[in-house]
Amino acid sequence: MLKKTALLFVIAFTLNACVSKKVYQDLESKYNKLRSSNSQLIEEKDNLLATKKSLEDELLKLNKDFNELSAQKAQLENDLEALQHKYTNLDESYQALSAQSSKKLAEQSQKNQELLAQLEEKERILAAESLRLENLQNELNQRSEQIEELQRLINAKEAQMQQLKDAISSALHNFEGKGLTVEHKNGKIYVSMENKLLFNSGSWAVGSEGKKAVEQLASVLAENSDINVLIEGHTDNVPYNGSTISDNWDLSVKRATAIVRILENKKVNPTQITAAGRSEYAPVDTNETNEGKAKNRRIEIILAPNLDEISKLLNE
Is the pTM higher than 0.70? Predict the structure, then answer.
């Protein structure tokens, strides 16, 4: 519903020469929500990595406890063997002293009973420790399986994104050196297109060369329906001086939605796509030089994997 509302507002901007303050404020509010959603995705990934680290630390602690309990079990077994040997010796002594006075026989019997009680207590402790050790081993195995599954899912997502990056690089290789870059970092793919490839100055109409690049990208995205696509429009810090729209905020949003329309027309699922305008406030270079301004005037297409499967595993 949010995306449909945003699209209606963009169409309203196209049809009207002047934009009311309320419409601008609504767009700014929606942009802030989209930006917050993007930040939440990054935070979610960071939380996943932190959870993995916590589970690995817990696994190390469980291994340490397991080793300590194993050592305790071995000591108890040694104590049990020593007591059994001592009991055997005392029993032999008891037999040798059976002819002695009843007092000594009673004392010896008492010692034997005490040793038997100690032996039974050691056996009880050993049985309890063995059960605890078995339970700890089961828990250790479960945690290890969970960590392995989490790592498998993370590796699979990374491999999927690398394959997607390779496919995009292959599809767009004809545009290398023309203001287009493809980068894989932080588990996401960043496709950056400078405005010289896409738009004329102050315009949000995509040129033929830029449209061809976006369509070739769309052919890859259409085959990856589980990838989230964020389209960000960026400008330099030169104020917009036209009369059709208000300022660089409007211009960056219109340029982002212009890319969205091309993707939609090429069968990219609209539910995958988010459009946002960031005006001049996320530069990648200085605005003090013409070269820096040219780099700042761009479209960023940020591709992120769907993390629902990993979130489900962590909530189990």
Answer: no
